[in-house]
Structures
1.
Amino acid sequence: MASARDIRRRIRSIGNTAQITRAMQMVAASKMRKAQEAAIQVRPFVQLLYRIQRKATTRPIDFKHPLLEVRAVRKRAVILVASDKGLCGALNSNLFRLVAEYDPQSTVFITAGRKAAQFVARTRRQLVADFPYGDTPRFAESRAIAALARDLFLKREVDEVRVVATRFVNTLVQQPLMLEFLPVGDIRGVEVPGAPPPEALAADRTEVLFEPNAEDIIGYLLGHYLNIFIHLVLLNAKASEQSARMVSMKGATDNAVEMIGHLTLEYNKLRQGRITQELLEIAGGQAE
Amino acid sequence: MAATLKLEIVTPDAIVYSKDVQMVTLPAIEGQIGILPRHVPVLTRLVPGEIIVRTNEEKEFLAIGEGLVEITGERVAIVTDMAVAAKDIDEARAEEARQRAAARLRDKISDEEVATVNASLARSLAQLRVKRRHRGA
């Protein structure tokens, strides 16, 4: 049986923990709002670019861009986007579970975020490059990642590039996802809201004029498209991370408060018992 | 009722413009092009410059950065890295940005950076040109 002093000490220590987790919850909440806004703002841009990309690359044209080339996959690269810091619930472990499906021999990794790099190193997989990204992902950071992946693909060091990252659905739901990045094709496995379904695009056979020529337009378009794709992934990852952290910190705070309640009850019972016993002792002493 | 074009201008930060218009003039890579309703479908690149939008009542002017445009008979969809209406251009800030970019170019920097700085220089120049031309407006 714990003494009253022990219980008091535990209450105080849990109170301190609750204070810390509450502070972290507040910080995450304010960062979350910013990150969510950014992730939502970029959506219309991506929708339109995606539509143009589909339109440009599904036309029957007498020219093949190297970024569209589908090859037999001997080696693949995975861009793994995780958080820099922990304390965000199951966010990262959900991602790593997805990654575990890839054969470590034929897969190389490009990581963004410290936890991703640590995971790749810990499980002795092959790491090509590790990129940092800040609380508000900047376009330059996305471009660096996209450029590296594109080079690997064009130099034929890998035959396929995929992205494993978290998609931000809402504050409570974040979805770990695997997306095909290169060769450029359909975005499968995730609906691009507002964009017409692939069947509608495939059915649309209107002749489109490319000015000055298809090669120039598609080259320019694909470069942009890849950069924006990664940018969107990073923004989503950040929004997910902050949301997950806020929710898990809120959970921790709630648990701490509940625990303090239990301990206080126990402490009061103990105190009451002691007072009752003391009273009985006094009464007993008088009776003698 | 004459046919109209749905003009959409989207940047990574926002939907800048979304309205039905009569005519659009765009700075395409091969020169200025004017788009009327029922234009043939075209995909082309845009260079930093000025967009002139003609609606029933008025003309609007916007400065845009480089980007892509998708033209069909009933819509013009523009994706660009920058778009600012002439009346919202802050000349002092654009001028400042231009000078910053020019100064940056004089320093020794990597090719990658040169491209970035050149792009931002072109953006501020486009803003300045549009603003100065419509100072009275």
2.
Amino acid sequence: MQKYSIFNLVKNALSNHENWDLAWKDPTPKKEYDVVIIGGGGHGLATAYYLAKEHNITNVAIIEKGWIGGGNVGRNTTIIRSNYMHDDNALFSEFGMDLWRKMSQDLNYNVMFSPRGIINLAHSDAQMNVYARRGNSMRLNGIDAVLLNREQVKEIIPMADFSENVRFPIFGGLMQPSAGTARHDAVAWGYARQADSMGVDIIQNCEVTGFDISAGKINGVRTSRGDIKVKKIGLCVAGSTNILAEKLNMTLPIETHLLQACVSEPVKPVLDRVVTFGAGHFYISQSDKGEMVMGGDLDGYNSYAQRGNLPTLQHVLTEGIAMMPFLSKLKMLRTWGGIMDMSMDGSPIIDKTHIEGLYLNCGWCYGGFKATPASGWTFAHTIAQDRVHKLNAGYSLERFNTGYLLDEKGLGTKTWIS
Amino acid sequence: MLYIFCPHCGMRSQNEFSYGGDATVKRPELNKEVSDKDWDNFVYNRKSLRGKHWELWQHISGCRQWIKVERDTGTHEIFNTLKADEEISK
């Protein structure tokens, strides 16, 4: 594989950039693999990459029903952060932050990681207390956190509404300076390219139709492009988890819901941080192209439709305009939807299952993109070693039975309000 | 925009309703020994499949009654609505 470098860029310029290698191949599936990863999104690609890189397992196939990067890895709002309070979430995410910082060098692919910082706004004294507690918990886990008062927030984001007579005045905020954004497509392409170069087969347009299980063990997977013999299968299918669980006779603590996001027309640089509204659910950042990238609540009912309805969009953008009134002047460029694997406590599952050789990676709710490297790394470990790593020990499937839930927001089991 | 037929009030927009989840989940019976597995299935585990789905909605800005709605989770088409105490015919 050609390395991406200034030298190769100049060299290929001489032939009008017509002789670059393909970023990844288009192989036909083999009859047998050591590991099959179902789902060619960010998590599946990262898992295959770390299986090859960390565990030297390269006889691996990624099976993707659509195309690489066509699902949630290409539909998210690209926010990367580790501002969690609970130890299991904080340590896992902070491990991921470290992988993010090295990712462009590691993958030889510019993922445009931009640690611009995230500010969660507070709109009451009580919320400031809650954020102080969260910030302290973060710092105890080695994560940077700064509690900002109203004036400090105003200095950083003067375009927010700091007038006196508003329904949700800004009291301050909690900032994680090392959080940020990255180019989501590049993350998928970078992992795909490196995994492919180490021998992983990326098989697109290939739908899983069934599983070959006997005596509680995985023997193979049936696909629209033929049967494949395999002893270990990793499931990384996000919003389609319930559909494959049905084929496995499993019922999971997961519901599939619809989440919308949108971007405005591009404007000149105005916002150089990620900001979230604290009196509702709205988050915003500005892309390098100048578009304001915005998202918020789920549509609120079980759905597999990758498109949303207007009432939710209106509700979310009302919050945005309450926080930053200038947004009302912008034209909307694009809105879209994706389907989320909402878990019953708002935290993910990376675990073995009762079927030998079947490994589960799901329940990412809104937070799948930022978790891509850490999820791939720990899932690869879980598959290769047949045991969970201490970083994903808290993300067990069993916790819904034992009661060790990881309910970061304390919202209970109504997935549609989390 | 979804339009939901409330059996008490008639056709209304989704703005008047709030969602209540899978309508086929049954709470384990009282005064009976209930296994952990049964509780798990009641509290956490859901099929949540693509296709027809019976679910609860509350007409929160209308008559405030809970109703059952049969809706396709792939297309959002609504086929049928029932009062809360009416049984779903299989």
